[in-house]
Design goal:
With about 325 residues, the protein is α+β, with helices and mostly antiparallel strands. It has eleven helices and 13 strands. α1 packs across α2 and α2 crosses α4.
Length: about 325
């Protein structure tokens, strides 16, 4: 290592949560994954990542994925994630940085020297909640390190890299509400009205692999065209009408009483909120869309939060502002 006199200011980015307005499984693929149809909605609520470039330079040669992984240990200093994974290489932030370096090697974009970066995670989203916290952390890491290390990958290329990390990672690179198909990586932008939500995060986690293997999980939802989904937003934005549903809900609520209790609590508020309560992803978080007339009723929303059976938050969709 050689010293570099330049210091960089800390870059802080929101790593936003997502919710699924509905979630269907339309079949199983030959590769073992499932084809999905969903709408991802990004929220103005999430974790925060702080990136700080150190005053050192690592000079290296790396020509393989294994060497990229080794290099990642030299270039990434991760703080705030100690309780998430015992092995650093299992952390999605590390996986994102490593995948970025691999892509740089494969495209001959990897410089001969780079500055290590300290990434500090300020965690707010619970794990295993279906809010995409880890995936969002990975996507944010891809975008910021691409910028810091001046690799100049396009958004489309970053989305392809993101898909190698996890099915929910690409939407956070895409950066806007979208209809998702395939395993979640085929994204089509959709314009949705601004919305507030009451989100509950029960302390429950059901293993995703166990859910996909559950005999009562509906895996044969009829595929819907992109045009139909765009034209039928009244059936899933504020309310959730047939055929729209989250196929994981009956399975998760049967396995996790805390999720069932949280969802039942929100269902008891539906008449006042003028919306349909539902679960996001494969759980455990549940949410209730709030009618626009409720935005200024701070006292009522505070009451709902206080009386909730688990942590509750009023959040809104992510905007460009």
């Amino acid at each position: 290592m050689t010293k570099n006199a330049n210091h960089s200011a800390v870059i802080t980015r929101l790593s936003p949560a997502k919710i699924n307005l509905f979630l269907h499984i339309t079949g199983k693929r030959a590769d073992g994954y499932h084809n999905l149809q969903t709408i991802f909605r990004l929220l103005n609520w999430g974790d925060y990542l702080h990136f700080s470039v150190t005053d050192e330079v690592v000079i290296f040669t790396a020509n393989s994925e294994r060497e990229a992984n080794k290099l990642c240990h030299q270039l990434l200093i991760l703080a705030g994630a100690e309780t998430i994974t015992t092995n650093l290489e299992d952390n999605l932030i590390f996986k994102a940085a490593s995948a970025l370096l691999v892509a740089a090697i494969e495209t001959n974009k990897l410089p001969t020297s780079l500055s290590p970066v300290q990434v500090t995670l300020d965690k707010h989203l619970p794990m295993g909640a279906g809010l995409g916290g880890g995936s969002s952390n990975a996507a944010t890491t891809l975008m910021v390190l691409n910028e810091i290390w001046q690799l100049k990958f396009s958004r489309d290329k970053l989305i392809k890299i993101a898909a190698t990390i996890g099915a929910d990672v690409p939407i956070f690179i895409f950066g806007q509400d979208a209809i998702a198909t395939g395993i979640g990586e085929e994204l089509t932008a959709i314009d949705l009205p601004d919305q507030q939500y009451l989100v509950l995060t029960p302390n429950a986690h059901v293993n995703t692999a166990k859910l996909f293997a559950h005999p009562k999980l509906q895996r044969d939802s009829a595929p819907l065209s992109i045009k139909s989904i765009k034209n039928q937003s009244d059936d899933y934005v504020q309310h959730l009408n047939t055929p729209y549903q989250n196929v994981f809900t009956p399975v998760v609520t049967s396995l996790a009483p805390a999720v069932d209790e949280a969802l039942a609590y929100l269902q008891g508020l539906e008449k006042q909120a003028l919306g349909t309560a539902r679960m996001t992803g494969s759980g455990s978080a549940v949410f209730l869309p709030l009618d626009s007339s409720m935005i200024d009723d701070k006292a009522l929303l505070a009451k709902w939060i206080k009386e909730a059976p688990c942590p509750a938050y009023v959040v809104a969709n992510l905007t460009d502002e």
